[in-house]
Amino acid sequence: MVPEELDVLASELEVRFSQDLTSRWGDLEFEELALSAFNAQFQHNPVYRRFCEGKDAVPTAVKSWRHVPMVPTTAFRHLDLVTGDHSSVRMVFRTSGTTSTTRAPGRHLVSRPSLYHASLLSSFREHLLPDVEKIKFVSLIPSPEELPHSSLSHMVGVAADTMSSETHWFVNGEGVLNSIGLRNVLEDAALEGEKILLLGTAFAFVRWLDELAGKELRRLPPESRIMETGGFKAQTRDITKEQLYKSLSTTVGLEPNRIVNEYGMTELLSQLYESNLTQPNEIQAGHTPPPWLRVRALNPTTLEPVAEHETGLLAFFDLANLGSVCHVLTEDVGRVIGGKVHLEGRFPNAEPRGCSRAMDELMASSRVTRR
């Protein structure tokens, strides 16, 4: 049975996520919801509760979301982090495991798909379709039928179900690209003046551009746009973001500011986007978090906050993670300036000392819980 207070909070958040994103949530408003989420997770997630108790971080003592204990992303590789009844889990998202062949893939157990969908749809529309209700989706990301445990494929599928006038998938579950079909659809859209949303990972775009070998296509309608996600170390060759965007822009005839980068991960159910379409003249770039997510940059050893403009490990408090753990410490590096995230890559080589220490503590709590 789902605890009643968890149900009530989830329903409130689902409504809030579905509202207009243009107005930011106040700090006090976010604080109240974040502490309510922490209380629910402390009460109904046994592994996380033991971890918090070991830090003397109980709901009556924690007065700010910043002091809620963080779970490192590595924990999702080893523990089932579920808040509530395990029987309520409806979806399992798995990491690709491509960043390390020696690490077990992580997984995120999702018990409230409607809450997750409310979060992803609001952000997707705000940053990729702020000016249109429907648009043709052309995807270099496999469909959710091909990759049912991919959070990225699921995200695109849910968005397509709601916002696409027509959807074409050109990469299968084995990563095979149908470049001829892709070219035909893009050429038809250019001839008919039909705007499209072209979606893909950096790796898929690099592979496609390599196959084209410098050939340019007919210019897409200027109202078209591209969503790109993922890192820039491809299996065929390394490429910078600027190089990739210039090549894409030249190939399909779109301005570079029509390309929007999406940042997300399996361990977080919210996504962050660049604001190229909503704030095209913005001087400071960066990724905009939705109102229900807060981001900090932390010292990799002490896990204390660094000053604004300084580089640190990125930690996220994501209310969309109500069904697991909201406060997540990543191995991604970046700066937080004016609330926006400026990504700088992954922590080099070994796991950051702060992450390692947090993981050791969490695993010790798990062993106690299982006795």
Protein architecture, described:
This protein is α/β, with parallel strands linked by helices. It has two domains: 4-101 and 286-370, Luciferase, domain 3, CATH 2.30.38; 131-274, ANL, N-terminal domain (Rossmann fold, 3-Layer(aba) Sandwich), CATH 3.40.50. It is 34% helix and 21% strand. The chain is built from nine helices and 14 strands. The longest helix is centred in the N-terminal third of the chain and has 18 residues, at 27-44. The radius of gyration is 21 Å and the shape is globular. The mean pLDDT is 90.
Describe what is shown at a glance.
With 371 residues, the chain is of the alpha/beta class.
Relevant terms:
single chain, alpha/beta, Luciferase, domain 3, Rossmann fold, 2 domains, 14 strands
Summarize the SSE layout with pairings.
Layout: H1 4-17, H2 27-44, H3 46-54, E1 71-72, E2 91-94, E3 107-110, H4 113-128, E4 135-139, H5 151-163, E5 164-169, H6 179-192, E6 196-201, H7 202-212, E7 225-229, H8 241-252, E8 259-265, E9 268-274, E10 287-288, E11 293-298, E12 312-318, E13 327-337, E14 340-346, H9 353-370
